[in-house]
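hey so i finally got around to running the thing on that chain from the lab meeting. sorry it took forever, my laptop kept dying and i had to restart like 3 times. anyway pasting the input first so we r on the same page abt which one it is
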Amino acid sequence: MILYEVINGVYGVASSDAGYTQTLSRVDAALKKLSTWQEELPSSLRLPDDGSIPDRARITLHLNYNQASTSR
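ok and heres what got predicted. didnt touch it at all, straight out
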């Protein structure tokens, strides 16, 4: 859902009609939602703090999060 908002609100047709300030506001809102999403992850989906290697699905989840949150 958040990635959909980024694609449509920042890169989509709607963004072509928006000014710089409005586009920046959309980016900021999406980044806040991403941060909230990460903070609310259950411990079973978080990366381990002890340096152990998590399962592939968790690694992929966090790689996708990091890609979405640093793509601005």
